[in-house]
Write a structure and sequence with these properties.
This protein is mostly helical and about 270 residues long. Helices cover about 65% and strands about 5% of the residues. Strand 1 and strand 2 (about 210-215) form a beta hairpin.
């Protein structure tokens, strides 16, 4: 039993060191991701205004175009800051609800998702490999929420300005984004949702109409592909994730061995020959 306890303690020390390394790597990764995401969001917006819906963009006055560009820059900067703030400084604090429990309610609350205070990787409770794995999963889910929220906010802004069709419900954009992996999409520039939407004709016309839809859809894989430094950080995170998974398996194995040893001891302590 003593040997098993020592082995478990060793795994916990190894987990804590790995947690600190993972925290440091994520910090650098999120800084690089924020910069790349900001650039890609602006580029996607530029493509929609200049290539996707140039006529609609040209209908705007000079001041309206400047205002749209300014709001897009502010939106991109806000999302960038939230990515950088996902990890708070050493010293602890308590984790917010899990990322999968967070809900998108308003534009403001959507873009505050990145400010959920993830549990600091240097916290003592992250000497448990299973909790470290959960911490990383929650972090990645929150990251995805930020990209989703930034995409939705940008599309809403483009709709309000008259660039994207206002008659297109937001639910259609969400459903299209979720089904994109399984659907036949039209190839195009990165971080754009490019689909053909079939709509019913009006009462005085027969048949249906096929409309091409362009909208912003930030994809983590495409943002990472656009930046070699970002791809390098992601590669390091993958390697660390493999080590986390290995520690989880070893930790569970030792926990099982301890439970078996304790059960055997408990059996012997209560057993008596009749």
């Amino acid at each position: 039993m003593k040997k098993i306890e020592q082995e478990i303690a060793g795994l916990e020390r190894e987990t804590l060191a790995l947690a600190q390394e993972l925290h440091s790597t994520y910090s650098s990764y999120l800084t690089a991701l924020g910069q790349a995401m900001r650039q890609q969001l602006i580029l996607a917006s530029y493509h929609i205004c200049s290539q996707g819906y140039p006529e609609s963009f040209l209908k705007l006055s000079y001041s309206q175009r400047k205002q749209l560009q300014q709001e897009l820059r502010l939106l991109a900067t806000s999302a960038q800051q939230q990515l950088q703030e996902m990890l708070h400084s050493p010293g602890g604090g308590h984790a917010e609800p899990k990322a999968q429990q967070l809900q998108l309610e308003s534009p403001e609350s959507e873009l505050r998702l990145g400010r959920t205070r993830q549990e600091d990787a240097q916290s003592s409770q992250l000497n448990n490999p299973e909790q470290l794995a959960q911490w990383q999963e929650n972090l990645d889910l929150s990251l995805a929420k930020i990209l989703q929220a930034a995409s939705r906010r940008a599309n809403r802004l483009l709709q309000q300005t008259g660039i994207l069709p206002k008659k297109l419900p937001e639910q259609v954009l969400e459903a299209a984004a979720k089904a994109e992996a399984a659907a036949e999409t039209v190839p195009g520039p990165p971080n754009l949702l490019n689909l053909l939407i079939e709509t019913e004709g009006s009462e005085d016309s027969s048949g249906s109409t096929v409309t091409q839809l362009l909208a912003i859809h930030l994809r983590l894989s495409e943002i990472e592909f656009s930046d070699s430094q970002l791809g390098s950080w992601r590669s390091q995170i993958r390697k660390l994730s493999v080590r986390v998974s290995k520690l989880v398996r070893e930790y569970q194995k030792k926990q099982r061995e301890r439970a078996v040893a304790e059960a055997e001891s408990a059996w012997r302590s209560s057993w008596a020959d009749e």
